[in-house]
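Dear U.,

For the methods section draft, I wanted the exact inputs and outputs in one place so we can describe them consistently. I've listed the two proteins in the order they'll appear in the manuscript figures. Please don't edit the token lines directly; just add comments below if something needs changing.

First protein:
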Amino acid sequence: MIIPTLRNILEDLFIFIPFFSNIVVSAGSLDSDQGHVGHNSLLCWKVEAHGTTQDELWVNIDSKDRSVDQRIVLVRVAVARYYSRMPSFYEVMIERNFSSAHQLRGYKGKCENLHGHNYKVEIYARGEELNNIGLLIDFGDLKTAADEIVKYLDHRNINELPPFDEELNPSAENLARYFLEYLNTRVADERVKVYKVRCFETPTSVATYRVDD
């Protein structure tokens, strides 16, 4: 009796390799009558997605009546079925840059002093449907809206600009949220939502603000 090893399965599932960062395939057994792990059970491969028992997919690869190729097909089908159940959406991203000064009020350290950054901001929008010409949102429209904020902040002391003069500390976290909330007031399309903004103070220091539906 030849049972495919985990290596065999992964090698043969090459078309799913991009997804396997979140999937574990392991040997196991499944009770054919009660639908759960048991002693009187068939040999199976377990395809576990995202590491939660709720997303486990049990694939019967009992070798008595299935070739290795048939078992591989069964695992492929299981993985495909899992991903067909996952929410799907389109995503676009734009990047904007600006240079500004700021100081963090109440910070105990050198960042309490006035200093500057060459900021990079990544703006992510998503939606489930495209428009009639196959676009989620025009990149140009999203850039135009983002540039309204960039123009407001660029080559300025952010601490002197509302709402960062009194209400908010001009941290990367608060800047990311400011971009996201403003842009969602400027995107006049119910199909599209700006759901994530990443604000880089340096290439190695980044804050993210995101909202989930």
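Second protein (the one for the lower panel):
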Amino acid sequence: MTRGDGKPFTIIPSEDVSAASVLIFTAKKSLLLPDASATFQHTLGAGLAVVSGNIQLTTARNDTASLTTLTTLFWDVQAQWPGVDPRTVASGTLVVSPDVTQQLDTSVVIYTTGPSATQSAIDAAAAAAASAAAAAAVVGISVATEDDESGTFNIVGSLLAGEDDESLVLIATA
């Protein structure tokens, strides 16, 4: 699973848990940690439910939000029935990977033109970049055209100019 994402899981227990009075799911970074140091826990009615004989675990965003590196968690589900000692009905590992996108707004400036971008727009962008390079400015321009069939935009040209005498101008076309 990905860090910070709430997700439902179906756990198939080793025995019927429909009459269990207690179910607890525990996930830890190490088997040696006490339960009080678990990464997260869920109990029957609070993230755990029994559905058609299986255990339905629904993790919350906060369960893994603090895990910033690739982490393997060890987990188990303990069940207890009235008058019976608790026992493990399922166990395993859960790999939590960091998310790539960490916020939902863009972190970098995206330069695009609308569906009417043509070769003349690419030429105009090239002229602007060359002019900026001559003025020793730093410029980054991307020109995009719309794919008529899918409605998506494709970058067809990129221009860069550095601020030193050996300015780099890169033009990439699709």
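Candidate sentences for the figure legend, describing the second protein: The chain has two domains: 8-96, 108-174. The longest strand covers residues 71-80.

Thanks,
Y.
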